[in-house]
Every structure is written in C-alpha cells, then in structure tokens.
Amino acid sequence: MKQRHLGQNGPTVSVVGYGAMSFTNFYGPATDQGSMNILDACVDLGITHVDTANAYGMGRSETVIGDWLKKRGGPPPFTIATKGAITRDPDQRLNNDPAHLQEALDASLTRLGVEAIDLYYVHRRDTRFEIEEVTETLAGFVKAGKVKAIGFSEIAPSSLRRAHAVHPIAAVQSEYSLSTRSPEMGLVQTCKELGASLVAFSPVGRALLTDRPHSAEAAQTFDWMKGNPRFQEPNISANLAYNARFRALAADMGVPAAALAIAWLTHQGDHVLPIPGTRNVDHLREVALGGTLDLTAEDLARIDAVLPIGWAHGDRYSEGQWKGPERYC
Question: Which entry of 56, 120, 121, 176 is annotated as an active-site residue?
Fold first, then answer.
C-alpha cells in the first residue's frame, strides 16, 4: 500500500483509507461484528486511515470503532478522523455554534475511547457563522489538546482559503471520483496549494464504478438512492451503460473495476486520499488493491476515453440533499 501525508505536516497514512459510514444501515443492513471484521481486514491490508462521523448512525459508527479499539488494546493502528455539526434537530439540522461543536467533540471522544482526535472536521457549514469564527472554534480544540488537526467537509475553495488564513487546514473532504469531477474546478488545486489533503469520499461512485453496480430496481430499496438523480430513470440506465464500458476496460487491464477507479484517484495528485466504504471484506480487498497500482499515461488516457469528464447522468445530489454542501461551480 502506498503511503501519503494526511495534511502538509500530518501523519503518514495509507493512500487508501476506509469510510466508516458503512458501519450503519445507510447502504443496507450492517452488524457490529461485520464492522469489526472490516476493521480487522483493514489492519491486514495496511489501511491506516479510518474516517467516521458522529452523524453516522447517530454515534453507532464511532461506538463500533471505540469498542473494537478497546477489545484490541494498545495504541490505535489507525489515524482516526471524525466529524461534528449535523444534528437530530429538524429545525436546525446544521449547527456550528461553538458550544454545540464542543459538546459533539466530547461525545465523539467518549464513544471512540481516545484522548484526542487525529483529524476533526466540521461536517457541514452552518451559514449563521462565518467560517473564520468556526475555524477559531476548531483551533481552540487543537490548543486544548482534544484535536490534533482540523478540516472541513464539502466546502468551496474560497472558503478553504478563508479558513486557512486563520489556522492550517489539514484536509477537506469532498465527493470525488470518475463520476464526480467537480473538485477539479478549483478544490483539487487549492488543497494542493495550501498543503491540505483532499479526502475523497464515494470514490467508486456509490458502486457505479465497480463490477457490481446497483441495478435500477436495487437502487430503489435504499432511501437515499431512490431520491438521488443519478439512480433514477432515465439516468440510471445511461449510467449503467457507461459502467459496462468501464468494467470491460478494467477486465482488459486485468484488475477489478473498483481498484481501477481508486488507482485513477490516487494519480490525480499526491494529496488526494480516497476513503471507500464497504460492508464486504472481498470488496475491501478490491479497493485496497487500487492503492498499490501504478498507472501509465496511456492507462489514464484509456480511462478518460471510456469515461470522459461529464459522462455521469444526473446531478450528484437532489435539491434536498444539497442542503449543507457549498456549491462553487
């Protein structure tokens, strides 16, 4: 597994991390034992960056990780990132108030059973607060020794510059993959310029970049997907046709499609760190393989030929799902 820095001066981590939203029922039923098996497999595969959030299962993901760490004993084998700011309050779903973030952080520390969070993100911007003020709050957590580095999820390049002027931002988390390339319109470049990692979630396009994509019928069984434009007709059929082309290319290159999608991401900059999530150990092996592959310029050109930029049909979010992420292009 290739290694990269998490942030300009941060720890060395595996180029492929693990996104632990899959420890909840978001993409289908999950069990705590199955999640712990995934963590065991991460260790075996050399994955050393695990990403979670207090909103994943309303604390369930963090609790599973904390229980696994306690059972294992000794120092954590992972750099652990988590997030706060999404609430259960239907009237205030996003909250960047300093008191709320402090409470959320303390609860995350308790569930994870660690003395400090390696990387703490604001999960979504709350526009009631200027980003400079929110960054000051996060910087206070660093000063207090509760957090080692800070980041933001789904912010615009302009917001990143404003935050970085207050305190170094170690990472920005954003959806980025062969099916979602909007970060290339400023975020990839700004992260590199400022020394921040770009942590790419949904790096295999919510299965559209794998050998086992969800069918149109299967997608309708997931609450989130059935409301997402890319998984509604006629978009899903068009996207599955492109998936077939990508699967054929991956087979011709002798690798799983998911591994090829991950490898493509790792070649978009030495600051790009994909965090795929899965409940399946075999699929985890496939995405981890992507962190070992070297692609040539010819390989990258072949990928672009079958999945040209802009190929994905449908917006990546519905209007309701767009509440929170910053649009910048």
Answer: 56
